[in-house]
């Protein structure tokens, strides 16, 4: 049973909600075991434990990255799948980025990923606005989203949105990526921006209107899934972009659409480019997108960092649907910007 929150550092006598926070040394003699459970990596917390406390007892460590690799995924199969993905990747930079991502996860050490640090000198503003060319994108109060925008995650030298492209922006949040795409595809292109969370969708609509991009961007107040219907969603009241779909934990109904069905209903003659960042639902979205991938062979940028198993499952899944040249890049430090870039394979 959890009786209190324990601080490794020196912020004593603060409270989190109704729970008192004590320094670990103050309760050292009461502990038979310490559990260090983290949403991401736990290496930093373990370093703090060693450097800032006198605790020498038993420690159990657990991270979300551990949990997102199923126990049924045997080591031999993991290694076989990693090798299969490496053979799919089209350049050495991709293979090194991919292996380094695995190493950082296996070590539960985010400092390994500092090699990916973006050295762009642009500063991050303190307000809730992203300024891009002549556009103002409002409601962006999360500094990480601003860092992602500066890092230019959704294009690389082989995969990028181009003039006249039809784009599916899956996980549009408040419009930052949709506006970036609209600028690239121009008036002859189209961007369908999917955002299921109403509070974020309202910002998305406002940003489209205020930047006079209604003729290019079509906002869609739906999530994307393997089939159309209703699912439960978990929302973040702070407005951070970490809302996600979960039948187990969701507190509100979210309408979702199968993208193959959407493409058919909209009578889209082409789908040129797909960006996918849906907080761990990427595999299910791809399941509902398989016919579009086979028939349209769009360029794609898909996040690989939400679930550890995505590092193998998603590239292997895509490879079975169509012939692609695949690249892995990470333009930011930390674990949250590793993307799979898919370019329709060049015919020999």
From TrEMBL:
Organism (species): Heliobacterium modesticaldum (strain ATCC 51547 / Ice1)
Domain Methyltransferase FkbM: 169-306
Transferase as UniProt keyword: yes
Name of this protein: Methyltransferase, fkbm family, domain protein, putative
Biological processes per GO annotation: methylation
GO molecular function: methyltransferase activity
Keyword terms, alphabetized: Methyltransferase, Transferase
Top-level division of the source organism's lineage: Bacteria
InterPro entries, alphabetized: FkbM_mtfrase (IPR006342), SAM-dependent_MTase (IPR052514), SAM-dependent_MTases_sf (IPR029063)
């Amino acid at each position: 049973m959890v009786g209190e929150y324990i601080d490794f550092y020196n912020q004593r006598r603060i409270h989190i909600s109704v729970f008192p926070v004590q320094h670990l040394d103050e309760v050292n003699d009461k502990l038979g075991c310490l559990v260090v459970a983290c949403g991401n990596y736990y290496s930093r917390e373990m370093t703090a434990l060693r450097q800032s406390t006198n605790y020498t007892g038993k420690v159990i460590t657990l991270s979300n990255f551990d949990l997102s690799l199923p126990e049924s995924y045997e080591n031999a199969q993991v290694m076989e799948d990693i090798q299969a993905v490496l053979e799919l990747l089209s350049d050495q930079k991709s293979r090194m980025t991919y292996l380094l991502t695995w190493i950082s996860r296996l070590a539960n050490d985010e400092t390994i990923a500092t090699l990916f640090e973006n050295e762009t000198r642009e500063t991050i503003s303190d307000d809730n606005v992203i300024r891009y060319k002549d556009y103002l994108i409002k409601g962006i109060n999360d500094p990480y989203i601003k860092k992602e925008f500066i890092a230019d995650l959704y294009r690389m030298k082989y995969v990028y949105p181009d003039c006249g492209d039809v784009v599916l922006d899956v996980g549009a949040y408040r419009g930052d990526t949709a506006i970036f795409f609209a600028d690239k595809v121009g008036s002859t292109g189209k961007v369908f921006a999917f955002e299921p969370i109403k509070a974020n969708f309202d910002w998305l609509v406002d940003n489209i209107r205020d930047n006079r991009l209604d003729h290019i961007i079509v906002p869609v107040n739906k999530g994307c899934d393997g089939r159309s219907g209703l699912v439960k969603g978990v929302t973040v009241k702070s407005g951070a972009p970490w809302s996600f779909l979960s039948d187990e934990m969701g507190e509100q109904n979210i309408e979702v659409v199968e993208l193959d069905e959407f493409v058919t209903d909209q009578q889209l003659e082409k789908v040129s480019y797909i960006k996918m960042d849906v907080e761990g639902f990427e595999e299910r979205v791809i399941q509902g997108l398989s016919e579009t991938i086979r028939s349209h062979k769009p360029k794609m940028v898909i996040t690989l960092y939400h679930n550890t198993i995505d590092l193998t499952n998603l590239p292997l899944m895509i490879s079975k649907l169509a012939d692609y040249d695949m690249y892995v890049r990470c333009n930011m430090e930390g674990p949250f910007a590793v993307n799979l870039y898919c370019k329709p394979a060049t015919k020999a």
